[in-house]
């Protein structure tokens, strides 16, 4: 826990997506409803419970990022506690060194996720806590009340949670009878039914708009997802290597006892590959995998693998030295990459958000990364989401995320005649970096009606470009 608290300040940077939830929560608190733009009922978030929790600090007049960051920090400390108790077997035995807690405490992905302002760490904590609570209740022959509560919270937090809960429950050992399976499944199903009823009643949709915005071209998404998982293994190899190799020395009885952990790990990887991973650094989509994977690292140091106490102590010392050296290198590289990303993002998205704020700009802005720009200017600017998360027309266009382009896309953006259009440029604003920006920039309507008013990172290769309509076209 002390190691985690020491490392967390080095990761202090909110994710752009967190501000989408904050803007929804702000509109809810100010009486506009659970919407991103007033009057537009579109579910452009994928973390319902987290978004509602974000409304609490806003209602109290507190910075929502700092409040939700505190919730994530507490969640991480709780997750470390759960991993420590997970290292204890039913007979009371525990390895002399619990490796999983040290690996998680120094994990760049989960440290980054904890500081992001998003629900990632909270979701990982409630899901793993539910799985551990279910396991212990089954072994003790008690009703799995804790699992029912935590699984319900998980379902209300993330859209993939119902499938993860189903895998955890159905793949669990048969001991304890059907009561230990039906109760958690019923609790999760009840939470899901409540969520769906609310969604249909309010948004008139069965699925959040984010699903429509991010699906399409599955063959390409799968290739991207495989690359995403491979990059994770290359950048943070220590934890997965220790965990996977420990499976080779684990007794068959232990593998069967926790086969649900293996099943959900495989499902998480398959899900991440299917959706194509994520564009953000440090692999937030795989954070929920880490506790289920790292728990196996503790099997290396079980007493039954060594003939004497001296051997156990010597092996634990050697393994610790190797792990510490490797982890330090991983942390240094990860912290450096994150610092670069933070600086680059602040000089692009953050700078554009501040420019709109300082100009006290009003009207409609068409932009892809809608988080910090929309939040900083929430009382003045309506946002036309060029990536479709909060726009049903763009979300319905065939194609994968960031590739929903074509005539309908151009007509949606330019036909709305926004006051501002923002996209990223490569080697200057005449060379849009993304295909969505190129679709707009090379359209004759854009060339005739818009002019460049500011850009970021003037002396760098990459920057954000802000265009405004000519005064003559007002």
Which features characterize this protein?
about 475 residues, alpha/beta, D-Maltodextrin-Binding Protein, domain 2, 2 domains, 22 helices, about 60% helix, globular
Summarize the structure in short.
This protein is of the alpha/beta class and 474 residues long.
Give the biggest beta sheet.
5 strands, mixed
Strand order of the largest sheet: 2-1-3-5-4
Number of domain modules: 2
Low-confidence stretches: none
Structural class: alpha/beta
Separation of the first and last Cα atoms: 57 Å
Query: Quick check: average pLDDT?
Result: 89
Coarse morphology: globular
Strand residue content: 5-15%
The count of helical stretches stands at 22
Instruction: Work out the number of β strands.
Output: 5
* Helix proportion: 55-70%
SSE order in H/E notation? HHHHHHHHHHHHHHHHHEHEHHEHHEE
């Amino acid at each position: 826990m002390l190691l985690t608290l020491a490392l967390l300040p080095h990761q202090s940077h909110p994710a752009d997506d967190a501000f989408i939830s904050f803007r929804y929560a702000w509109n809810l608190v100010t009486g506009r409803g659970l919407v991103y733009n007033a009057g537009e009922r579109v579910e452009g978030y994928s973390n319902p419970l987290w978004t509602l929790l974000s409304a609490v600090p806003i209602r109290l007049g507190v910075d929502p990022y700092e409040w939700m960051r505190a919730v994530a920090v507490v969640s991480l400390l709780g997750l470390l506690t759960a991993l420590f108790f997970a290292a204890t077997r039913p007979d009371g035995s525990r390895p002399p060194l619990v490796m999983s807690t040290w690996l998680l405490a120094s994990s760049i992905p989960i440290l980054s996720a904890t500081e992001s302002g998003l629900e990632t760490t909270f979701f990982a904590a409630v899901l793993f806590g539910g799985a551990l609570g279910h396991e212990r209740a089954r072994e003790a022959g008690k009703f799995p009340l804790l699992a029912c509560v935590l699984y319900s919270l998980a379902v209300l937090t993330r859209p993939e949670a119902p499938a993860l809960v189903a895998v955890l429950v159905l793949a669990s050992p048969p001991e304890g009878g059907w009561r230990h399976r039906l109760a958690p499944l019923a609790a999760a199903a009840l939470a899901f039914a409540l969520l769906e009823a609310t969604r249909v009643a309010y948004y008139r949709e069965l699925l959040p708009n984010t699903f429509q915005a991010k699906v399409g071209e599955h063959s390409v998404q799968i290739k991207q997802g495989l690359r995403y998982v491979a990059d994770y293994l290359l950048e943070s190899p220590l934890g997965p290597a220790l965990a996977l190799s420990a499976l080779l020395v684990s007794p068959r009885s232990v593998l069967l006892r926790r086969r649900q952990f293996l099943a959900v790990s495989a499902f998480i990887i398959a899900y991440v590959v299917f959706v194509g991973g994520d564009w953000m650094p440090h692999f937030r989509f795989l954070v929920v995998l880490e506790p289920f994977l790292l728990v196996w690292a503790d099997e290396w140091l079980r007493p039954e693998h060594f003939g004497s106490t001296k051997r156990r102590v010597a092996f634990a010392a050697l393994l610790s030295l190797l792990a510490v050296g490797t982890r330090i290198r991983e942390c240094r590289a990860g912290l450096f990459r994150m610092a670069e990303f933070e600086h680059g993002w602040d000089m692009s998205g953050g700078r554009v958000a501040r420019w709109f704020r300082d100009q006290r700009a009003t009207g409609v802005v068409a932009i892809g990364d809608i988080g910090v720009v929309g939040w900083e200017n929430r009382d003045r600017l309506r946002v036309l989401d060029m990536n479709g998360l909060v726009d049903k027309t763009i979300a319905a266009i065939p194609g994968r995320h960031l590739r929903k382009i074509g005539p309908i896309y151009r007509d949606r953006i330019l036909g709305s005649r926004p006051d501002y259009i923002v996209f990223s440029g490569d080697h200057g604003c005449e060379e849009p970096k993304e295909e969505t920006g190129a679709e707009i920039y090379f359209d004759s309507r854009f060339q005739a009606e818009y002019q460049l008013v500011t850009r970021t990172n003037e002396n760098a290769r990459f920057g954000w470009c802000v265009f405004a309509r000519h005064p003559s076209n007002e």
